[in-house]
Design a protein that fits this description.
seven-stranded mixed beta sheet; alpha/beta; 261 residues; globular
Length: 261
């Protein structure tokens, strides 16, 4: 049976020069090419299969997993994700921030105390059950430039500072567009100190009304569309990874694919 692959020649032609520059050059070269390795990880991300069920045509599951982990540890995935978007970031006028709660599979449970336990691995209990939350800062529906993880019950507003601090150096949008979950005086002040105009509707319990640009606020759906795109990959729509760093590795790679596709 022929496998459905995702990497076109056009996509890999944009990936290859950056990979050659940033990937580690220590140790013996792996038997599997970079293209087939990335294809294998995307296959697992898209289908949600257990690692042991990886088709033989895509390589040995253990070798692919260990290479995925090495690239996460040495920062290759994150650098690839940001390097690809450098030109897009320079042209961006708006910052969109939002989050999505992801149900965690029972296989995601059981992080060892050496790793800090489940809470340290961004796993918790929300109204939706055992879950993790992905917080995203986007510049459009295809490009996320800041991604963090928290337990599912975490507040959006409390994670704002972490998302904001992870924005690429030199990024200076005109507007910060978010929903009313981010309506706080502290967030508005942080944005203004960075010369960013807050486009955030006020909560109903505010004693004084705050005006905001309703026309620009209509574009907030762009971050929701980005989240919808990455959640088309089953390994992101449901979390199976015990370790947050491995879940984040999948998110970074899928974000790269969404940006290029």
């Amino acid at each position: 049976m022929a496998l459905r692959l995702l990497l076109t020649d056009e996509i890999f032609d944009r990936l290859e020069p950056i990979l050659l520059e940033i990937k580690p050059k220590v140790g013996a070269p792996p038997e599997q090419s970079d293209r087939m390795f990335i294809e294998a990880v995307l296959y697992v991300a898209r289908t949600g299969i257990p690692w042991r069920d990886l088709p033989d045509e895509l390589g040995n599951y253990s070798a692919v997993y260990n290479r995925l982990k090495r690239w996460k540890t040495n920062g290759t995935w994150e650098r690839l994700w940001l390097e690809l978007q450098t030109d897009e970031i320079a042209l961006a006028d708006n910052l969109y921030i939002d989050s999505t709660c992801i149900r965690a599979h029972q296989h995601a449970a059981g992080a060892s105390t050496e790793k800090g336990g489940q809470l340290k691995q961004a796993l918790g209990r929300s109204r939706g059950g055992f879950s993790t939350k992905i917080h995203v800062g986007c510049i459009n529906e295809k490009a996320a430039i800041s991604i963090t993880l928290t337990p599912g019950q975490a507040s959006d507003a409390k994670e704002f500072d972490t998302v904001f601090l992870k924005l690429p150096e030199g990024f200076s949008p005109e507007r910060g567009i978010m929903d009313k979950a981010y309506d706080s005086n502290a967030i508005r002040q942080t944005l203004r100190e960075s010369e960013i105009v807050p486009v955030i509707p006020p909560r109903k319990n505010r004693t004084t009304s705050i005006n905001y640009d309703e026309d620009h606020y209509k574009q907030r759906n762009r971050v929701e569309r980005f989240i919808g795109r990455i959640k088309q990959f089953r390994r992101i729509a449901t979390r199976y990874e015990k370790l947050s760093e491995m879940f984040l590795a999948f998110i970074h790679l899928v974000s790269v694919y969404v940006f290029l596709s």
